[in-house]
Amino acid sequence: MTSKLKPNQKAHPVDAALYHDDHARPVSRRDFIRQGFLGGTASLISGGVFSLFASPNTAMAALSSDVGSLAADINCSLGGLTGDAKVPFICFDLAGGANLAGSNVLVGGSGGQNDATISTAGYSKMGIPGDMVPGLDSTSFSLLNSSLNNDFINDDLGLQFHADSAMLMGILERVGTAIGNIDGCVIPARSDNDTGNNPHNPLYGIAMAGGKGSVVDLVGSRSSDSGGNSMAPADMINAEVRPTKVDRPSDVTGMVDVGELTAILNNPADVTAVMESMARITHKKLKLGTVNTGLTKDEVVKDLVRCGYLKAAELADRFAGREVDPTEDSNILNIFTPAELDTDGEFRKTASVMKMVLNGYSAGGCITMGGYDYHTGDRRTGENRDLRAGRCIGACLNYAAQLGKPLMIYVYSDGSVASNGMRDDTADSGSVLGGRGKGVWTGDNSSTACSYMLVYNPTAKPTTLVTPSIIGRQLGRFSADASVVTSSSPAANNVNLLVNTVLLNYMSLNGDIGQFASAFPTHGLGSAFDQYAAFGPIA
After folding, report:
1. HSE (CB half, 13 Å, CA atoms) of 99?
2. Per-residue pLDDT for 263 more than 50?
């Protein structure tokens, strides 16, 4: 189509709520998030003190020996991770049905990202007009040899993006020195539109695959069972490792807070000594039965209380005098300015989750970003939300590089959108993107959906495996009309199997692919599951 956006088409600011005539009024928390009435945040709800300190690890030698003995008496494990840390994992849950395929990550036919199967009409459905089709001459619209002409193709991240992708712009703006050591894989896969009932969230699987944090195993920016907007697969949910809500710096500092002791005592050793004394006194009183727990006199409850105090002492030993506030972390301040952290909740949320995950306090984290149900009849709304998501993704990669840590990122959304071919030719205005001549988003369309993974390796570019199913950094394929071919991979039409494919790749990165079948005995990927691994092990 050659029709264009009306000159007076209203723009939607990046934090504005989205109203749709073809959608019912939002009634659930997920409805409010996907349409941007809530920014993917939640009120502060956490488990008790015991749920925050449940990782089984080795004891820290700096604690007094009698404290270690008290812990051993009640089988209470203390301490941080030593030597068996897995690759840190962060997933981005773009609530509402974001466009990921075509206008952001490139997709193709059976030959992978470079397979020019998709027709010009198919690209139009994915929001790409004929003169911006990747690999095509913008004048003659004829196919060109990709080795001679890469119009509208960008491979700075290994995984190919459309060169005018707003999400790519955001990533490259914040990625820093991580560039060059990143690669990825795209998975064409359908999921239902506008619902949190897709079991997209892989966090519980990260714990099942051996991921453990030194403070909590999992964190998520929502206080939901999954830690995100989308559900977790039902057979993976384990209440013992339910993600702890983290979406602001105070959530991070609160996990290792020892109250006003740090303000009164300047020496971290003194803080530890006080906490140890509290643990000894409580242990003795419980043993004598003089403390009323408010529950029962059962020894299990007593042991839980004892263990909570012992873990508090151990945490004080590890964190008193140590900077845990994301807003005071110099590496994070190299990525986000203090003003950005003060004014943008999505940046604060990202800073908090990446602080937890990349410092080893948590093995995995989920960042939910709301307002991605952006089929608003223009293109600007979606572009600016994609741009901010990209900035947050790039920030995580940059922070990993500054810490010298590997990182796996997984990006998904509930459903997708499509364009009718009308163009939005509004120009950029300062830091706010215009429509840039691309197709407006006019409705939900799950057939154009995909998810993608990015992996950063601090020592070298990640190794991509040559397997029967991963072709051209793509698992599965699209048809000529830009629809997911649902038979092209186990993940293409089954969100549970999409999650299992992501977890397979997580275990492959950690060198644990041989344990995948035992960790996930009902994985559904068949006996030759290793063909769906896009990456080899990284350090």
Report:
1. 39
2. no
